[in-house]
From TrEMBL, chains A, B:
Keywords: DNA-binding, Transcription, Transcription regulation
Organism, as annotated: Noviherbaspirillum saxi
GO CC annotation: cytosol
Upper classification of the organism: Bacteria, Pseudomonadati, Pseudomonadota, Betaproteobacteria, Burkholderiales
Record's keyword annotation contains DNA-binding: yes
Protein name: Transcriptional regulator
Length: 266, 266
DNA sequence: CGGGTCCTTGACAGATTTCAAGACGTGTGG
DNA sequence: CCACACGTCTTGAAATCTGTCAAGGACCCG
């Protein structure tokens, strides 16, 4: 009744997470600490592998957690694609990110004992459950793990800073271009093609994420296509000139905002 | 040669951090752990007060740290006002925040061993130096402190998520209105008037922070003034209708973006 | 009092959103 | 198997907002 694997239409270069293609869904049910660390690409020496973390599967559209739900878990994506969204006071969805393999989410719940966002699966997903208390305990014994935790948190913080910068200072074209290159890089990291891939999210979701309307996203994509920078057909994207996309910058805001620095030094 | 206190023109309601008005700058030089926690408004039971943290003073324009500088310290504002800025690849300044009393900064350095932003004093400031290693050590012994650290980190994360939402989905008027109310609330928290206060930053800095130009900020402020919502004269702002400002919402983006949720439930 | 920075205001251009209509794709039910 | 319904994507035209450029005034400091 359901597809064997929602990632099957992704243009895979190598498959590190083979899913059984034989009838029933036969996926990995537990991961050790070192496996999780490897997935997240954090270096950890001699991890205590007596601890094992449970996996849980979700299908497209299902919610991993909702806003206001008591916080007790962190999550790491083992496979699949998701989106994290906030709901503003008007009830509008605001997409905050698109977690994929190796990404951790749920971090926003650490403060205040409850999640402030919700996470929805965009495809069939396999996520690893990591009880926060357990992680804290492990951290006490292993400085490596503790450091990794702080690092993960810090990375997220920096990623958000970059988003703020982008949305605040770049035009629509540059934002979409960066979004594409960001996806490209992430796909490359997890073993997919960086040149050709499927968008798992709608134009509306991309627009929400970038602070644009779906029409603007669509138009920009069409423009890139016309310029030969990419090829787009529905959800399938092929990158032709990554360098141009990376460089692309049209600046609606400050142009003469030269460094006002160098006034007083400490 | 320098002003006795740059906060002296703030419309104070209560003064919890008295500065000596007698000639030479006679400020607090050390704070205990519990004092720092109190400043940050984090509840901590029986803190180890044998540890003391050094204070350092800065004058307007001085940099607390710069981008790329090796990370080893976190900072808590004891008094004064600052701004944290990132520099994008074009060399433009991008204001990320305006730390004030009780705020912690330097968190962005935890990941990657180096700061990714710089922090500049907007007025005479007194900041507390908190060696990260020391904090980690204390955290191991005191779950309270450790929890507080995670909480501080998480709070910052959520704050940035809010910023992304605002910049991405609100028009200029709403952004400025929220900015004013945010300042108002923070001033109230640290014992200043929430109705009348001085902007410590320039329109340019506000604009950079909100993803707008200084002209738009100026115009919007003037418009609010004309509507009677506030009074502005240069740096002095008086809030007249906080409720209107909080509610104000002009939506350039999605209007018909009704909840597309409620499709599949977990 | 002069220089410099910051703020305000106006006119204009340009980008993005809004509104609207139609094509494309997929899934469901007959 | 096909038709229909729905959600998604594309494209066009007009309206609006915000940025850009420019000039003048206010304020601070030396």
């Amino acid at each position: 009744m359901f597809t064997t694997s929602t990632t099957s239409d992704q243009f895979a270069v190598s498959r590190s997470a083979p899913l059984a293609s034989t009838g029933a869904r036969q996926t990995k049910l537990w991961s050790s600490l070192s496996e999780v660390c490897q997935l997240m690409q954090v270096p950890v020496s001699h991890a205590d592998d007596t601890v094992r973390f449970q996996h849980v599967q979700f299908r497209a559209g299902q919610r991993i957690y909702t806003i206001g739900q008591p916080f007790d878990m962190l999550y790491v994506v083992y496979s699949g694609f998701l989106k994290t969204v906030a709901i503003d006071e008007s009830g509008n969805e605001l997409v905050l990110g698109f977690p994929m393999k190796g990404d951790m989410f749920g971090i926003d719940g650490i403060h205040g004992k409850a999640y402030t966002s919700e996470v929805v699966a965009l495809s069939t997903c396999d996520v690893i459950l990591i009880p926060f208390k357990t992680l804290l305990t492990i951290g006490k014994a292993s400085p490596d793990v503790e450091q990794a935790m702080w690092g993960a948190m810090g990375r997220e913080l920096i990623r958000e800073q970059r988003m703020i910068s982008s949305i605040g200072s770049l035009g629509a074209e540059a934002r979409v271009a960066r979004f594409l290159m960001s996806l490209s890089d992430r796909f490359a990291e997890i073993g997919f093609s960086s040149k050709q891939f499927n968008l798992r999210m709608t134009r509306q979701e991309i627009g929400s994420y970038l602070g644009l309307t779906l029409e603007t996203v669509s138009r920009t994509l069409s423009a890139f296509n016309a310029l030969g920078l990419i090829s787009v057909e529905q959800k399938t994207v092929t990158i032709h000139e990554p360098d141009s996309l990376k460089t692309l910058r049209r600046l609606p805001p400050s142009k003469h905002a030269a460094r006002s620095a160098a006034k007083l030094a400490a």
